Amino acid sequence: MEPVAKTRPISVLLVEDEAIISEWVKDTLVDDGFTVHAVATAREALHFLKSDSEVDVLFTDINLPGDMDGSQLARVARDLRPDLTVVYASGRVRQVDPKMRVPGSTFVPKPYMPSQICSLLQRIVTPRVVYSTH
Known about the structure:
alpha/beta, 4 helices, 7 strands, Rossmann fold, two-stranded antiparallel ribbon, five-stranded parallel sheet
């Protein structure tokens, strides 16, 4: 049987310490066909990134609890996964200093609608092709 190519859902690592925002964004993304793993800290995100789990995009708040913020997380994440798409969000800053951002990243100011994030991710993340014999 010939392998069949199909796209798999875009996998998002959501890093947001506000539980209500995290659940709202996660539920909307899942409803729109994304696969989402949500965590509240940069350390949890790094643990997930070091696993073999599929991650296409890191969507992280900049202001996170603990000893690492979203900007630092993105730099380490890109070291671990050079092709990772990065999207930053913040309600405290209106713009991220370009020197602090990883190349090719996107910034979204809060407040935003989760549906806007779905549309953004569909535009900027290339769907991954998987092959199966079924």
